[in-house]
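User: I'll paste a sequence; please echo it back and then give the predicted structure.

Assistant: Echoing your sequence first, then the prediction.
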Amino acid sequence: MSKMTEVEIVERLPATKGWTRLGDMLVRSWNFPSTRRALDFIRDVVEQADQSDHHPDIILSYRTVRLEVSTHAEGGLTEADFSFVGEVESIPTDR
């Protein structure tokens, strides 16, 4: 999968509600009522990442989870990143 052009990225960004672009990454944070619930969410993300064979950077800070999505092998954003963001959005956050 090849790195997307700037025009392609700008066209796709509006569909990533809740996500922001930070350089060559798509970034989003979630706040949870407890660290245990944050860890449950991380487990769900890791399961999805394994199924997709596309793994984000995951940062846990107490009850906050931050995902940073980029295709490191391509040095930027690819279609796989936008697809993965969509898959993450289907993970329930209110269990």
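The radius of gyration is 13 Å. The beta strands are 20-22, 25-31, 57-61, 64-69.
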